[in-house]
Amino acid sequence: MSLEVPAHSSRTGKPASRIRQKNEQAIIQAAEDEFARHGYKGTSMNTIAAKAGLPKANLHYYFTNKMGLYIAVLSNILELWDSTFNTLTPEDDPAEALTRYIRTKMEFSRRQPQASRIFAMEIISGGECLSEYFNQDYRAWFSSRASVFQAWIDAGKMDPVDPVHLIFLLWGSTQHYADFATQICRVTGRTKLTKHDMEDAGSNLIHIILKGCGIKPAL
Amino acid sequence: MSLEVPAHSSRTGKPASRIRQKNEQAIIQAAEDEFARHGYKGTSMNTIAAKAGLPKANLHYYFTNKMGLYIAVLSNILELWDSTFNTLTPEDDPAEALTRYIRTKMEFSRRQPQASRIFAMEIISGGECLSEYFNQDYRAWFSSRASVFQAWIDAGKMDPVDPVHLIFLLWGSTQHYADFATQICRVTGRTKLTKHDMEDAGSNLIHIILKGCGIKPAL
DNA sequence: GTCTATACGTTGATAGAC
DNA sequence: GTCTATCAACGTATAGAC
User: Which residues does UniProt assign to DNA binding (chains A, B) (predicted)?
Assistant: First the structure.
């Protein structure tokens, strides 16, 4: 499902040296910051190199070109992304499972806001770099997530809401706290969203969404 | 064609000629498309000029520089944005008012997705161009919106949810359908979101959010 | 493996003919 | 008011010395 990140040199296929690993990490880190703020087109290799503390020729040595670096960053992110998603099953207790899912997504929004923003930018920009990602497998996976909700509905464990739109509600409401953190801070007079703020936000979402779906909260 | 009062040149304050009005409109239209896709930094005057069918020197004639054009586009959007927001009052019936509000926002996401995306890109990019917009007045306005919900809560018309987070839930869940339309289409196998799709999405949100807040639906 | 120097296209912006 | 020609700055990418 995810694009491939070479643990080995993309050029030689040999195991990565310690220096290589360290430099690649520094570059990816710097690239994440820039891509998250300015998107693909708006980011320059120059700026990334400066932020990573390396001459810009090195970026081209480790990643063949700008798109190569971008794909590496995206892959990094999708790996994270995917790993937080596959926990719901029809056998689960809806209240418990949904609570856990929302908490996990909010925790992700708090700890990896950059990842969420890069993803958002890419989607808004047309998402062509993710066309590989949104393939048959992805649609099948999405379907299987939706069918979990359908199973709960059929078993009378929750209201007959549209499972697909419920997923979009879960995604939209949780990612909002990563992508729009700037606006949220400005509006509420904060300088940053604390762990506590995010937990409050999560509790609020859990209350409204569970009750809204006719699920009794877990004890 | 009607005899409207001509808009005025942003430079001279003199009445705008018909040519000027037409060209400015074409430029802003093209600029919106590009800024919505690539953000401020990722957009080039060159591309905008080509899309507007004008030599690029003209853009600098009508709008002093790139930032001037960007601000013009943003202002255009904020005007639209604000005009859809001020309908909730403590005297309203919560069910009716919230239903209307969600429908309005979804209608906005359907008709003006570009506007929503430019706003999203700007916020993700740090939102410095909006620092003027997020001023004292804005915070006061936001507060007054939140206090409407608080009034409903105090009157026992809805559950004691956090009014501020409720607003973020409303914003996040409705804007998601504009900003992430690409992903939604890919995932659901559609080519575009129809009016009918958006109405379904709205109905779903209304069901979950109203019930989740302990509000009985309007009849 | 690393970095300096550089090629060469594109950028935002302007000067000046029409 | 409009547009062609042009500028300096910056973009990605590479060649080749170390």
Answer: 44-63
Which H, E and C letters describe B92-143, residue by residue?
CCHHHHHHHHHHHHHHHHHHCHHHHHHHHHHHHCCCHHHCCCCCHHHHHHHH
Query: Nearest-CA residue of chain A relative to B126?
Result: A182
Task: Place domain B87-212 in its CATH homologous superfamily.
Answer: Tetracycline Repressor, domain 2 (1.10.357.10)
Burial of A44 from C-beta contacts in 10 A (0-12 / 13-18 / 19+): middle
- Locus of tokens 């909002």: A176
* pLDDT interval class at B15 (50, 70, 90): low
pTM over 0.85: yes
Give the length of chain B: 219
For the domain bounded by A18-69, which CATH number is listed?
1.10.10.60
* A64 closest-nt by C1' vs CA: D13
The pLDDT, as a whole number, for residue B82 is 78
Q: For chain B, give every domain's residue range.
A: 18-69, 87-212
Dihedral over alpha carbons B178, B182, B185, B187 (to 10 degrees)? -120
Q: Cβ–Cβ of A209/B205 closer than 8 Å?
A: no
Residue with tokens 């509905």: A153
CA distances for B45 relative to A60, A66, B39, B54, B57, angstroms: 28, 22, 12, 11, 9
Question: b vs e for A197-218, b when ≥16 Cβ sit within 10 Å of the residue's Cβ?
Answer: bbebbbbbbbbbbbbbbbbeee
List protein-proximal bases of chain D (any atom < 7 A from a CB). Answer: 1-5, 10-16
- Give the residue-averaged pLDDT of B131-137: 93
**Contact B90/B1 with Cβ under 8 angstroms?**
no
Please give the angle made by the CA atoms of A160, A173 and A109, to the nearest 5 degrees.
Answer: 130
For testing contact with chain B, the best of A124, A131, A143, A158 (most B CBs within 10 A): A124
